Amino acid sequence: MTRTTKLPTLLTLATVPALALVACGDGGDGGDASDGSVSLTLAHSYNDDQPQARCGADLIKDEVEAADVGLEIEIFGSSQLGGDADRIASVASGDIDIDIQGASALGAVHEPISILDAAYVFDDAEHLATFMDSPEGAGVIEDFADAADIHTLGAWSAGARHFTADEPIRSPEDLSGLRVRFPGSPQYLMNARALGADATEVAYEELYLSLQQGAVDGQENPITNIDSENLAEVQDYLSLSSHQLNTNLIIMSDRWNEVSEEQQEALTAAVESAVDAVTECVAEDEEATLEQWRSGDDWEVIDDVDVEAFQGQALEYLGDSLEDDSLEVFEAIRSTSE
C-alpha cells in the first residue's frame, strides 16, 4: 500500500483545549511521578455507562495498573478534554497520551483510515477482528502511523448502526424523501449516498430536539446510543439495518516510544483484553435492550430489513467512488470477508 507523507498542518486542526495542557501530570515532565512511575492520560467522549468506558477505558486502566510495571492511567471521559478534532490534535502534540476515537474522525488526519467506518465494509465485529489481525490490517495501521505519527494500540466495534424514523425502513427505496440525520464527517456523508439517504447534518447534542421538532425525519446510530438518548420518545420505528460498524481505534501519542518495553507489553495486553470485553459488553447490552423494546410498546422493531439490498448497493457505490489509498483499504477489508 502506498505510503503517505506526514501532514504538517495536523496541529492546526483544532486549538488544544486548556484542560489537555494540565492533563499530562505533575511537574511538566510528561507525567512522571516522584516515585518513578509514569502517569498517562486516557481521554474519550463516552459516558461512564457506555461499553467504551466501563468495559474499555476502565478495564485498560485496571489491567495496566494491576500489571505493576510502573504505569498509572488517569481517565478523562465525556469529552472533558475536547471534541474529537481537539483530542486528535492533542494526541499528535503529546498533550493527551491515549485516546479512543472513531475511524471516521481520524480520517481528518489520514483519509484512508476512515474507510474502517464505511457502510457494510465489515460483515460484523468478528470480521473487524479478523481484519485487524491480518497482514492487510497491519498495513493499514502502519500507513496511518506513517502519515499521522500516531500509534494504534487496538480497535473494537461499539456496535452496528441502525435507522430510526416515524415509518419503517426495510429497503433503500424506503429512504427516498426522508431527511435522515448523519454525522458531518466525509465518510458518514459518503455512507449516506451509498445507502440512498438524503443526509442532513445535525450535531449529536441537538439530535433529540431536531427529531422532536421535525427538523429531520430519522437518524442512524448504534443501539446503545439510541437507548442513551431516549430516541424512542421521538421516533416510532427502529429498523435493524446494521449498515455500519461503529469502529473505534485506541490511539497513543509518541509517549509510546518513551515507555519501557515491559510497559508497552502491559498496555498492549490491557487493550487486547478491552477489545474482547467491549465486544461482549456491546452484544449483551444490545440483546437486553432489544428484548426490552420488543416486549414493550415504545418502539416497533423492524427485523425484516433487506440487508442484502442495502449492502449490495452500498458496496457497489463505494467500489465505484473511492480512489487511491482509500480504495486500497476498502478492497483490503473486503478481501478478508468470508
Number of helices: 12
Largest sheet: 9 strands, mixed
For CATH, the homologous superfamily of the largest domain is named as Bacterial extracellular solute-binding protein, family 7
**Beta-strand content:** 15-25%
Name the CATH architecture of the largest domain: 3-Layer(aba) Sandwich
Share in helix: 40-55%
Describe the fold and architecture.
This protein is of the alpha/beta class. The chain has two domains: 188 residues, Bacterial extracellular solute-binding protein, family 7 (D-Maltodextrin-Binding Protein, domain 2, 3-Layer(aba) Sandwich), CATH 3.40.190; 131 residues, D-Maltodextrin-Binding Protein, domain 2 (3-Layer(aba) Sandwich), CATH 3.40.190. Strands 1, 2, 3, 4, 5, 6, 7, 8 and 9 form a nine-stranded mixed sheet that branches. The longest helix has 35 residues. It is globular. This is Tripartite ATP-independent transporter DctP family solute receptor.
What's the gist of this structure?
This is Tripartite ATP-independent transporter DctP family solute receptor. The chain has 338 residues and is α/β, with parallel strands linked by helices.
Could you give the topology of this structure?
Layout: H1 18-22, E1 38-43, H2 51-66, E2 71-76, H3 84-93, E3 98-102, H4 103-106, H5 125-132, H6 135-148, E4 151-165, E5 179-182, H7 186-195, E6 198-201, H8 207-213, E7 218-222, H9 223-228, E8 237-252, H10 261-295, E9 300-302, H11 307-321, H12 324-335
Parallel strand pairs: 1-2, 1-3, 5-6, 5-7, 8-9
Antiparallel strand pairs: 3-8, 4-7, 4-8
Helix pairs in contact: 2-10, 7-11
